[in-house]
Amino acid sequence: MVLIDREAELALLDTALAGCMAGHARIVLVEGAVGCGKSELADTVAESAEKAGAVVLRAMGSAAERALPLAVLGQLVNSAPPGTLPEPAQNQGPSRIEAMQAFSDAVHDLSTRTPVVICVDDLHLVDDLSCRYLLQLARRARNARILLVLTEPVHERSDDPVFGTELLRQPNFTRVRLERLGRYAVAEVLAQGLDGQPDTAGDERLADHAGHFWTVSGGNPLLLRALVEEYRVARRNSPAGAIPEPEAGGAFTQAVLACLYRCGPRTTQLAEALAVLGRTGTAELAAQLLGITTPAAVQGVAALNAAGILESFRFRHPAVRRSLLDRMDPAARTGLHRRAARLAHQYGMPASAVAGQLLAAQHADEDWAVPVLRAAAEQLLADGKAVPAAACLELAYQGCTDDEQRAEFRTRLAAVTWRTNPGAAERHLAEPLDALRADRLAPARMGPLARLLAAQGRIDEAGDVLARLGTATGDTGRRPDPQHGTAPVSSLGSALGSRPGGQLPGHRDDPLDGLSAFPRWAGGRTRAAGSPPPSTAAHSSVNAATVAVAPAALWAIPDGVQDGTAAEDAELFLRGTTLAAATVEPIVQALRVLQHLGGAQRAVHWSQVIGEEAARRDAPGWQALFTSLWAEALLRQGDLQGAEERAALALKLVPERGGSVFLCGVAATLVRARTAMGHYDAAARVLSQPVPEGLAGSFHGLGYLRARGQYHLATSRYHAALGDFLDIGRRTKRWGLDRPLLLPWRTDAAEALLQLGEAHQAERFVTDQLATRDAANPWVSGISLRLRAATREPRERQILLAKSVDELRRSGDRYELARSMAELGQVLKELGESTRANMVNRRAWHLAQECGAEALREKTLPGHSAAGGMPEDPAPVAAYADLEAKLSDSEKRVAMLAVHGHTNREIAMKLYITVSTVEQHLTRVYRKLSISSRQELPVDLQLSVTEMA
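Structure tokens predicted for AAA family ATPase:
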């Protein structure tokens, strides 16, 4: 490597060596930055001299021996042929001069017999007395076969100015300056290989990345060698074609530390100071930090730049900075960070820069530290950097002594941490809640606390906060139980909307601004240009849903499910908004409205889109939130396997699971999916995990109760299941959230009661659900009709189940549809209609298989496994992907009803046509599909024509 890009320097040294051999003494000073190959170049000259028959005397200066007189001269004498050079003497006065002359004469005598090449490395570390001997030799070596080769760092001169000046005065003196390798030289080094023998398996590829290696190493040959060696080791575990980055403590950073060591302790201390200062580093700041002069710091920075370790005041690779910080004494490093924080504050640097030093020192005892950390947190949040912002708030909290301010910091931390760690966000509110219960929380802090608790789904605790706020402010307009009933709009606006004291100074991006954001959609602010405003009914229903219930309003869904206005407004909002701290809660509201009112398929799409955006923003907490909503929407579609995968992913996205109300809600989706799939052991493992104390008073606790109840129901623990479902009913009524679209607890309870033989009680629950405002929804209606059918005689049961199938087919929930079809097939079998029963059961079996519902599939047709398939399935004789092109709309509707097992007369009644017309449609369908009977209708026909029905 040393010979590459060194042709001119080698030519000068070859000339000097040739002159020496011809009897003309030469003095060559090789200078350059540390690691640039000075020693290797001197070794190359020594090897050439030895091959030419010269005597080579070698010595090296070192910091350890610099205080030892004649240490270097002793190395030269020891490397000479025995008896040719006298032992150096440390005598003072005339005797010392005589000793220096004797040494010089001895070298001259030796040169008369053979050329003499003297190589002294690291001249700046040579002891003073040895320098005097060398200077005496240089003065007298004019017409002798002597070559004196000295190496010295360009920015680390000898402390003796006389020595350097006297060398310059010698007529036979030559200076050789070594620079770092250029980009093309680095490419040549990589192409030829470090040892001149390229490894065809790797080094040829290295040349393609010469720019990367040049940038990181700065063209310093020593650092380049270490970098390539580290790459050679790391590439074995790296993807093909990837360039592994150097690591702290690796060969490259060790080489940097070696260079600093050779530069001396002052340069090393300067490098450590610059590592502490980071991006704010300058020579002036480093000088003040170390207590040295600015010129000394400038000289040290120049040396580090010349060596390629620095680029201006920045390390070329962050691994070098990490290594320097790691190797420092912890107490010394902390002290430097504290001083750096004071300097940054004195110089008026940005709050984030000052906070960075305070965080590194974990120090907030200064009077100005807490305000700076608070300002830095808001600045970082505005830049989307939630993790360092949370660290600033945590340190500010530790440095704060005022209880009210500490509660404020904890509340703010909860809002910020939600982006990355929902569990930690919930725990941050423990201290403000304790302060509230001890009457130590000011009313100005209660509003933000209530909003955060409501956003986390902790409805009971949020209600307690609002009750205390009402008492503290003298607001008597509230009902006695404010968290469970309605609240006046004025009270709710002051507590949850206007944010009294709910932000830190300068904060403009409260993530809970959207607690009552749903009315904004109805207000048309996100409506597409030119579209008509929503109806007055929609306005009133939406506002009723969001401001009439406190604080459960966030989890409510609006009325007016018939016209779909709320779902349209929600989707318009999602199309026009971007993910940010202030929009998370409104986006959640919009997704839940889509799921319950606009079709789960739309909610699946938007949950996926926004979840991917959260991933791009490096917000695992948000990603887990939207992934959980994605799982819920998939479950609402009957995609059990997809729901299980998304729920499991949401749990993996967060760093911890224990003690989180939100994560219990995610676990509930996972349990429901696994229970419906028949994976009861896997569901039981999730349910066996501990739950937080506040789960019972949260909205997520309702989902957990339903999941546990469904598991109990599936495993024949009917009384336990009934208890969970009734508990859901009590809480939803208390909170004003009793909507079957949200939680159909009545039909869940009815199913448990039927298993307990309480058909009359089950009928009462189903009747109550069909009397609610959500009964017109096909999903609610379809489930209710299936449970009502279980209380009736077979003939009436058939009618109710047929209606249930029709409703659930429109709802898009394939799992619930499969359940109703399985029940319909069973009752048809009881009524002796085996042909229709087989067709319906066949369709139910396939639906269950598509959903992943193994237990339901086995219950529908015992003994028919997924691997074995359906023996009675006809082989496909036509391609059904183009059914829309083959069948008319009327034919599709008739065929679909036939697939569901309806008779020709029932189809005629449903479509308001004659039986003869039905028969004609079916005949044309058979002919177009090349089949002979309705038993051969493809089971996937229903999915192909659902939208047309």
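The beta strands are 26-32, 55-60, 116-121, 146-153, 173-178, 310-311, 314-315.
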